[in-house]
Amino acid sequence: MNTATTAASPADPELITLGAFLRRFSLSKSTFYRLASRGEAPDVLKLGRATYVPLAAARAWLQSRTVPAATLSRPLKPC
Length: 79
What we know:
Shape: elongated
Low-confidence stretches: none
Distance between the termini: 82 Å
Strand order of the largest sheet: 1-3-2
Strand content: 5-15%
């Protein structure tokens, strides 16, 4: 008896649920949909009632939001 395992091929997208994405990036659902309404959220995939985020889209979204640390601190003005 030959039992075949179903492994994802490299062409298959790796998906995470929207809930897992929100937990991973500490976002609320309302914040996600607010970002989506402004076109700032990653692409999603709807399969039936479930919503998934492709990992490639999540990585690209994170990369697009990354800023150099030097932009966070501003030099102090002399008194």
